[in-house]
């Protein structure tokens, strides 16, 4: 095939790293969202971590929700990279992979 007829896969990581990031981000998202919910409802178990102050609980809950959202975005990007890696690994002879 000519160089312009080849498929090019642009991936940011290999299949193992994308799988690892998907699993870690899934765990981080669940953990931080649950922690944010517990801070939001002012759970008694978290009383030792913060002084009982309305602003501290709300601030910690907001921070956990933002971090959970960031983990979710990273997980979606990693899942997309995993799909690309799996798809283009099957087409290995005719695909050029560019990693950055």
- Work out the helix count: 2
Overall geometry comes to: rod-shaped
How many angstroms separate the termini?
A: 24 Å
Give the oligomeric state of the chains in this entry, treating copies of one chain as homo and distinct chains as hetero.
single chain
Structural class: mainly alpha
Structure description:
- The chain is mostly helical.
- The chain has helices spanning 15-40, 54-90; strands at 7-11, 95-99.
- The chain has a two-stranded parallel sheet with strand order 1-2.
- Helix 1 runs antiparallel to helix 2.
- The longest helix is centred in the C-terminal third of the chain and has 37 residues, at 54-90.
Name the descriptors:
100 residues, mainly alpha, two-stranded parallel ribbon, 2 helices, 10% strand, rod-shaped, disordered N terminus
In short:
63% of the residues lie in helices and 10% in strands. With 100 residues, the protein is mainly alpha-helical.
Secondary structure elements and pairings:
Elements (H helix, E strand, L loop, with lengths): L6 E5 L3 H26 L13 H37 L4 E5 L1
Parallel strand pairs: 1-2
């Amino acid at each position: 095939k000519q160089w312009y007829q080849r498929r090019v896969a642009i991936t940011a990581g290999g299949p193992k790293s994308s799988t690892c990031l998907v699993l870690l981000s899934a765990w981080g998202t669940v953990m931080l969202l649950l922690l944010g919910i517990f801070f939001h409802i002012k759970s008694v178990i978290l009383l030792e971590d913060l002084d009982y102050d309305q602003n501290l609980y709300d601030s910690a809950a907001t921070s956990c929700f933002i971090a959970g959202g960031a983990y979710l975005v990273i997980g979606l990007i990693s899942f997309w990279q995993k799909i690309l890696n799996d798809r283009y690994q099957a087409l290995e002879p005719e695909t050029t992979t560019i990693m950055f």
